[in-house]
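User: My collaborator and I are trying to settle a disagreement about how two of our proteins should look. Neither of us wants to argue from intuition anymore, so we agreed to look at predicted structures for both before our next call. Could you fold the first one, then the second, and keep them clearly separated?

Assistant: That sounds like a sensible way to settle it. I'll keep them separate. The first protein:
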Amino acid sequence: MALIKRAVNLGFTYTGTEPVKIEWFKDGNVIAGANSALLLKNSAETSDSGIYSFTITNELGSVASQNIAVTVNKFIAPAVVTQFIVSPEDVLVGASITLSASAIGDGPFTFKWYNGDTLLASTDLPVFSLHNVSQEDSGEYSVQVSNQTSFDVSDTVNVSVVPPVSIHTSPSDVLVMEGSAFELTVEATGGGELRYAWYFNDELLDGVS
């Protein structure tokens, strides 16, 4: 097997009484001008693929070689991942995330989408989406891009799927004397860091958190 635009050499050695006549054949047809023990193609093309053979003849007789199969393939540039994006990386339970990738090389490409070691899908398109995600969908996401001859794997992107904020205990009404201090408390859960903003008569209280 050889690559297109590369040199291909076919040759042999022999012993016997000179002079000798050498002929090379491709697919049973004589190759014009090929009359030495070395057949050289400096820049092979796919059309040079075929079955080659030769004969060598002197005054005592002729000998034919076995067939030589030559295949000239086009060079296929390897697949290389140039970009991998997950959007958003922090997402609420029930929402969607979209994975997208870019690659260079000779296509067509196959994209395999992973969460950790788990294969999520194999697609011909560079985009894949997950819908109605749950906290179990959190993890390290990556993509493997492949073509006919090679594959490449992206760096991982961490995705966090978090539950929405939920208030379990709301502040209770209080009765205090004028000039006295009072305290309001709230119990809430949710993903990530919770931030609190307090309001009085629909106006934000500065410095109260």
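The second protein, kept apart from the first:
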Amino acid sequence: MCDFEQRTLVNPVLSRDPVKPTLNAYQIAALCFLLVALAFNCSFSVRRESQTWDEANHIFTGYRSWTHGDYGLNPEHPPLVKLLATAPLLPLQPKSPALEERFFKEDAFLRGKEFLYQNDPDKILWTYSHILPNFLHVAIGHLAEAIAS
């Protein structure tokens, strides 16, 4: 076998056992600090920000998906985060307005405002609809940390 064939058949880089990178204590502490900072930033920024223009729509459609199995009100957004964010509303059983026979986007928007403001909007917005998505955000950060280590 010539020298060229030997070099192409045995690649010394690929033939070695892969080395798994390890994190030292400073790197782990830095990752934990960044995740805690992310959690605080999410919590405090949510408290200072107001509702977005379509947030009531998403909350209402998420709650309606749970209670009526209706995924057609806001079909342009996947339901996972809406379902996670509105799951804590289920034991509260807030008053939910009946739909009117309108175009689905208009109905979701108008009934969403009605749903939010005929119940306790501060409790719904702060406690339920903002905390769970931010928790998901931090959980994804923890998952990224676990994958990296």
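Some points you might bring to the call about the second protein. The radius of gyration is 24 Å. Residues 22-148 form one domain.
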